[in-house]
Amino acid sequence: MKTITGLLLATSLAASPAAAKQYPPRDDCVADASFVAFRTSLADIVKRKDAKALLAVVAPDIEWSFGDPHGRAGFAKEWKLAAPATSGLWEELGRMLARGCSLKDGEASAPYWYQNGPSGELADIALINGERVNIREAPSKTAKVVRTADWESVTIGDEAKDWTKVTFEDGTAGYVANDFLWSGYSYRALFDKRGGKWLMTAFIAGD
Length: 207
Hints:
Layout: H1 2-15, H2 33-48, H3 51-56, E1 58-63, H4 72-78, H5 89-97, E2 102-104, E3 107-110, H6 113-116, E4 125-128, E5 133-136, E6 145-149, E7 153-160, E8 163-167, E9 173-177, E10 181-183, E11 188-194, E12 197-204
Parallel strand pairs: 1-12
Antiparallel strand pairs: 2-3, 3-11, 4-7, 4-10, 5-6, 7-8, 8-9, 11-12
Helix pairs in contact: 2-5
């Protein structure tokens, strides 16, 4: 009887699906006190929407586009920093700073997943950005919830305005609001220390 029970238990365990791999954000940058101080100051700049202070910590050759010349002037024009109160930069940059940080070879990057997310083609792979995020049957807040997800990787499909269809490793599919989705094409910020001073050297999206 014990043998049969053991076999049944082993079979049950073998049939159980493996837990989905999760990628919660981490903050490796706390290992560098100088960067922590810089980031605290940068977060305050973002909160105040202080364009002048921001440009002072932006590298002269900042990368902000894959097609246009690099540099502060183009960055400021792209993000309409002449009218900082209405610039969309603050929301995007604030979101990056709140999503962890990676520190590799003296370079910091945010969000954490940019250097440490799941492998795969940028066009196909994304991360559910949060805990207990609702995945719905249709692209609507009133649609039936088919499951919830915590920091899991997904394959992305069709977009529907503010929603994207996603498929999980177990084959479950549904729609997630774009605010809870991060892909390799999403914005990321890179920081480097030059002459003893931390600067933002890239703020870019796409590939």
